[in-house]
Write a structure and sequence with these properties.
Length: 257
């Protein structure tokens, strides 16, 4: 870590659980102060108090629903503040949808798309203003290995985030802002339980830990990589699906989910 990367403030969305809570822990361990965003205020406050005690940093909580315009505006407000400016933005909050596309209510699909794509774009736009003025910043967008697969609107939204990140890293790295799409495969968090998915459908070897995904994602971002795919097995999968026909790689994904 360069001195410039140390002791800045990191704003993490979806920091109450899973990968977001782990981003908060690892960034706090590296000396960053935190702004923790999610809907569940009580969980954010508990996480903030725990990390302040363990790592001697300062952690603010900012409860917000990021599918809601007022919630997004509150986070944009914090990203635009000149005091304690945010030097690291982690767009991580996300959900999965259990049912097939045509079975979901269109409002649910719209909230899903907003959370993964529109909100991430809006928060990135807000964070960039100060980062470009200061000539330094880090933005991590948590996409998914699903971004490489044709697998319903989740894949489509994550593909948007991946493409956006690849372009943004090219556009802004020369001006001091590193942008990385983190693309994990199955990772042990609350994600699948929350969407009601049976985790046993994926074999044990396919599962990653949040600790590894975040550690590799933060390191790849510091190296200036536009895309971080944790583990050799998922790097191989992402490389293979680029050259194989869709029908072959998406057998179980042909459902319009
Ligand atoms: P998780 O354990 O379920 O955590 C999701 C987080 O997002 C929680 O902190 C949740 O907090 C927050 N969140 C959900 N909806 C929100 C909303 N409307 N507004 C604000 N915050 C919201 O899931 P996770 O696995 O850590 O997911 C993190 C990211 O990783 C997601 O973008 C997901 O798509 C991606 N990902 C996960 C996996 C995996 O296998 N786990 C694989 C690839 C990619 P509140 O409920 O308190 O709001």
């Amino acid at each position: 870590m360069t001195p410039r990367d140390a002791k800045t403030t990191a704003l993490i969305t979806g920091a109450s659980a899973g990968l977001g809570a782990e981003f908060a822990r690892q960034l706090a361990a590296q000396g960053h102060n935190l702004v923790l965003v999610a809907r569940d205020r009580a969980r954010l406050e508990k996480t903030a108090a725990d990390l302040e005690r363990r790592y001697g940093i300062t952690a603010e909580v900012l409860p917000a629903d990021l599918t809601d315009d007022d919630g997004v505006a509150a986070v944009v407000g914090r990203l635009s503040a000149a005091e304690n400016p945010v030097g690291v933005l982690v767009n991580n909050a996300g959900i999965g949808l259990l049912h097939n596309f045509e079975q979901n209510h269109i409002d649910e699909e719209k909230r899903h798309l907003k959370l993964h794509a529109e909100t991430a774009m809006e928060l990135t736009h807000a964070a960039l203003q100060g980062m470009l003025k200061r000539g330094s910043g880090r933005i991590i967008n948590v996409a998914s290995v699903a971004a490489f697969l044709p697998r319903g609107t989740y894949s489509a939204a994550k593909a948007w985030l991946l493409s956006f990140s690849r372009w943004a890293n090219l556009a802004y790295s020369a001006r001091g802002v590193k942008v990385t799409a983190v693309c994990p495969g199955f990772t042990h968090t609350e994600f699948h339980d929350r969407m009601g998915m049976d985790k046993s459908v994926a074999p044990a070897w396919t599962w990653l830990t949040a600790e590894r995904v975040v550690r590799e994602g933060l390191a790849d971002n510091l190296r200036g990589k536009a895309v971080s795919i944790p583990s050799k097995r998922y790097k191989a999968l992402a490389a293979a699906v680029r050259v194989l026909p869709d029908r072959l790689v998406t057998g179980p994904a042909r459902k319009a989910k």
